[in-house]
Fold:
Amino acid sequence: MPKASKRGPRTLSYVQRLKRDLRSKAKAQSAALRSTKRDLNSLGVRRKAYSKTCRKC
Structure:
């Protein structure tokens, strides 16, 4: 039974770490998407090119 009591907080911190990683990854992805969008707009590429990747674009 001691293993079960140890597992609780560890899984909690693990889940928190996963969430933080996911959040940071999402932020980086959105920033990259924004920069690519700007580049494409500067090049004069239409929105259809990356409508598959992002619905808001």
Notes: Residues 13 and 19 are 10 Å apart (CA to CA). The radius of gyration is 20 Å.
